[in-house]
Amino acid sequence: MSKPSSRRPFSEALIRPLVRRLRAYAPGEQPRVKGLIKLNTNENPYPPSPKVYQAISDNLNGRLRLYPDPRARQLRQQLAKRHDCREAQVIIGNGSDDLLALATRAFVEPSSGTKNPSKATIQYFTPSYSLYPVLTDIHGAAANPVPLTSDFGMPSVAELKKKGFWDFRAALTFITTPNAPSGRAYAPSELERMCRAQQGVVILDEAYVDFAKESALNLASRYPHVIVSRTFSKSYSLCALRIGYFIGPPALIAALDKIRDSYNVNGLGQVAALAALRDRAYHRACLRRIVATRARLHDALQALGFEVLPSQTNFLMTRPPVWPAQAWLERLRAKKILVRWWPQPEVRDYLRITIGTEEETDKLLRVIESILTRASSRGK
Ligand SMILES: *Cc1c(COP(=O)(O)O)cnc(C)c1O
């Protein structure tokens, strides 16, 4: 019998140190609990257009054994038409996450491969989408996280210059707009000033823009270094099918196109996205409902003593009264309502609540009221 060895097990030693050390992205929970009200991952509470189901079932016959269109031509043409740009400015991904990862590989040097630190720098504001630091680590690049202002505003270019920790030459800058998890949107003029100050590629991640008043999409046609990222996951209710896209300058789009998997976009996703895109009336009606529910929930929470940040997304960032946010997370979970909370200091006083259906919102408000009533009857 051999003595216990202090050496690392053999399999571990085969893994690149970078991957061994890596902390993977932590997605929100997807529990399958009956009757659960799921307000934790910003999914659309309404199903996709009925035309999506029809398109999928029309394509189930026979097509499953064939490879999908590797270039997703129809969908790209339709998106180019919709956004008034050229087909060469559009690339589709297996969700926009796929494209965000491709962008790190196309535009950023790993830290070990360059003498110029900016070429290996990926920068973003905090808090914003928590995938960016993970993509940075996976690529072996250097992260430059820069805090937003205390009310989650974007510091001005002048402030960033004065403070000196923003890298205007960073190879890649991610800006989530409207921002997650704060829900706050940035004006196109403000975004344009930021873009103009950057030397490297800027990706404006507009995952939530359909719930907002305005978009900065036209910057992607006017600047040689600006890309706008969109997804069918949120406003089109197609999370499960994984369709996202970038609009950007043809040269940058062509670079991404070179390094993607040839079949990165599944066939059912392509037909579903096309059908969803074509049913504009359904999409608009769905957005109207969510925006109306957002306004109602905003006011109702405020009336119950919650501090609620203005939102241009399908979620509300809110600071609850009486107990710490984490305690609210647990009390709501006990009542089968799932919301999102993070332990990081700049957000740990907040809960992020996805906008649900009207009925789910009624239930949420009833549960919150009952929790508060019990609190006051116990003298807290
Ligand atoms: C949901 C989300 C995405 C990813 O969307 P997929 O297309 O589903 O990969 C990207 N960015 C932000 C900020 C998001 O919230």
Architecture blueprint of SSEs:
Elements: H1 10-13, H2 17-21, E1 37-38, H3 50-58, H4 73-82, E2 90-94, H5 96-107, E3 121-126, H6 131-139, E4 142-147, H7 157-163, E5 172-176, H8 188-197, E6 201-205, H9 219-222, E7 226-231, E8 243-247, H10 250-259, H11 267-278, H12 280-303, E9 307-308, E10 315-319, H13 325-334, E11 337-338, E12 351-354, H14 358-377
Parallel strand pairs: 1-11, 3-4, 3-5, 5-6, 6-7
Antiparallel strand pairs: 2-8, 7-8, 9-10, 10-12
Helix pairs in contact: 3-11, 4-11, 5-6
This protein binds pyridoxal-5'-phosphate.
The site of pyridoxal-5'-phosphate has 13 residues, from α5.
Overall pLDDT: 95
* Helix-strand string: HHEHHEHEHEHEHEHEEHHHEEHEEH
- What are the bound molecules? pyridoxal-5'-phosphate
Please identify the structural class as seen in this structure: alpha/beta
Helix content: 25-40%
Number of helices, where a helix is a run of at least 4 consecutive DSSP H or I residues: 14
Low-confidence stretches: none
Principal-axes shape call: globular
Strand-residue proportion:
5-15%
Distance between the termini: 61 Å
Instruction: Please list the strands of the largest sheet in the order they lie side by side.
Output: 2-8-7-6-5-3-4
What's the gyration radius in Å? 22 Å
* Main sheet record: 7 strands, mixed
- Counting DSSP E segments of at least 2 residues, the number of strands comes to 12
